[in-house]
Structures are given as structure tokens and as C-alpha cells.
Amino acid sequence: MADQAVAALLRSQPDLKSHLDAAVGYLVMDAKVTKIPVFGAGGGDGVVIDTATRQRTYVKAIRIDLGAGWGARAFKVIMMFTDAQVLADVRDGGWFYRSGAEAAAGSAAAEGAVGPGNKGYESFALAEGGASATVTIRVIHLKPYLL
């Protein structure tokens, strides 16, 4: 799943190959989210890959959204890490907070986030289906697990 998602991202945005080559690691997650006015929930399973060691850590995500919006969608998330500490934080699991806006219909999606300029990663979404439009504050819990 991870290799196919990265290949699809690079086919759609070939200029990202240099970003992936420079990354200390990356995350690929298969995710789903459902949003009704005020509340939303979702989750997924993914893998964090350390590019230096090729070590794979499997993670499960649970996501809670608060804010405006409506819809349900499936997508893949690809995060390329430029900061080794951020990679370690994601690999080890924990709670992460973010605010932003998303819109998706079918295989087209757009996403924006509010936060610091240099956050130690770049994030990309590959829409797989569904439709949604949201402006939310997200709480995401990542937990590593063994296969």
C-alpha cells in the first residue's frame, strides 16, 4: 500500500521526488473520515518508514473533528518528514492537534492548514472517493502496533 501510494503521488506531482529523496522518513496512511455539522470522526492504518534504516513502524490513527462541515471520504495521507524528531514523535505515537480546511469530491481534493511555517513535515492527501467540505480543529491519536 505504501509503495503504491507514493508512486501515485509522484506520478501526479513529479517535482516531489526531490522532497522524498531528502526526507528523513515518511508516513503513508489509509484513512476515512465522516463529518456532520460540529462533529466528525475517522481513522486509519498506516506505516512510518525511516529512510536511513528502512525500518517500518505500523500505526493506527483515530481522528476527532470539531467545526463546520459535512461529508464522508476515503483518502491516503502521505507525510514526508524533514525533522528527525518529528519523525520519531509520529513513529512513537501520541496526540497531535491541527486546524484547517478540506474539500473533496471523488478523486479531487484540496486541503489547507493553519500552523507554523516550518513544522518538520510536508503533508499530501490522495482522494479515493466520497465528498466533503470542512473547516475544523482536528485531534489525532496515533498508536504504534505490531503486525
Q: Provide the structure class.
A: alpha+beta
Q: What's the story with the biggest beta sheet?
A: 6 strands, antiparallel
Q: In total, how many beta strands?
A: 6
Q: How does the overall form come out from the CA principal axes?
A: globular
- Helix percent band: 10-25%
Separation of termini?
A: 15 Å
- Give the count of structural domains: 1
* Uncertain stretches of 5 or more adjacent residues: none
Mean pLDDT: 91
User: What Rg is obtained from the alpha carbons, in whole angstroms?
Assistant: 15 Å
Question: Any overview of this molecule?
Answer:
The chain has helices at 2-12, 17-22, 84-92; strands at 25-35, 38-50, 56-81, 94-105, 108-114, 121-145. With 147 residues, it is of the alpha+beta class. The chain has one domain (2-145). Strands 1, 2, 3, 4, 5 and 6 form a 6-stranded antiparallel beta sheet that branches. The longest helix is centred in the first third of the chain and has 11 residues, at 2-12. The protein is globular, with a radius of gyration of 15 Å. The mean pLDDT is 91.
Features:
single chain; 147 residues; six-stranded antiparallel beta sheet
Strand and helix map with partners:
Blueprint: H1 2-12, H2 17-22, E1 25-35, E2 38-50, E3 56-81, H3 84-92, E4 94-105, E5 108-114, E6 121-145
Antiparallel strand pairs: 1-2, 1-3, 2-3, 3-6, 4-5, 4-6
